[in-house]
Amino acid sequence: MASDIQGKAIVIMGVSGAGKSTIGELLAKALDCSFLDADDFHPQSNKDKMHQGIPLTEEDRIPWLEILQDALRESLISGKTVVLSCSALQKRYREILRSADCNYHHDGSFKSAVKFVLLDAKAEVLAERLDKRAAEGKHFMPAKLLQSQLELLQIDDSEAICKVDATLNPQELVNSIKTMIFRPGKPIAL
């Protein structure tokens, strides 16, 4: 079902410790739009597995991604902008999220109202952040799963994913993302 009313979705993606939730929240505030944290959509069974250091399987991930797809679709159809923080590590996972756009065609062009921004940082920086977060009891994802996420991360240049340096301070990151996604006074074709 195609829709003439079209919102926008910006997915802040990357491995654990990249700063997805922090940057996603700040970007949503700057854009005066809704923010969704994909972690909030995980069933408890997924959180328990990750907390125990067990990587998720496709059977764990796909239903979770489909729930996120539905949440994005709801915003897009209502003409709203939404920011989602989500690992979205593989192209096939991003395809599920892109498909929230009822007008999206899987024709290799990746033209969709769902756009992706990769927060990129070196493994050492990410591990340090994860260790700090774990020591503070702030997240269910242990640092020992970082390597499996880095190995799973798949970036295809044809997808035109915006890539930003996750070691910049948060406000610089938000400004950089806004510059990449919006021209002064006029949004780039999202």
What does this structure look like?
- With 190 residues, the protein is α/β, with parallel strands linked by helices.
- The protein has one domain: Rossmann fold.
- It contains 7 helices and 7 strands; from the N terminus they run βαβααβαβααβαββ.
- It has a 5-stranded parallel sheet with strand order 2-3-1-4-5, sandwiched between helices.
- Helix 1 packs across helix 7 (170-181).
- The protein is globular.
- 35% of the residues are buried.
- Mean pLDDT is 86; it is low at 184-190.
- Keywords: ATP-binding, Kinase, Nucleotide-binding, Transferase.
- InterPro entries: P-loop_NTPase (IPR027417), Therm_gnt_kin (IPR006001).
- It comes from Salix purpurea.
- One of its GO terms (molecular function) is ATP binding.
Please supply descriptive tags for the structure shown above:
two-stranded antiparallel ribbon, 190 residues, Rossmann fold, disordered C terminus, 5-stranded parallel beta sheet, alpha/beta, 42% helix
Percent helix = 40-55%
Order of helices and strands: EHEHHEHEHHEHEE
What is the domain tally? 1
CATH superfamily: P-loop containing nucleotide triphosphate hydrolases
- Average pLDDT level: 86
What's the level 1 CATH class?
A: Alpha Beta
Strand order of the largest sheet: 2-3-1-4-5
* Terminus-to-terminus distance: 19 Å
As residue ranges, the low-confidence spans are: 184-190
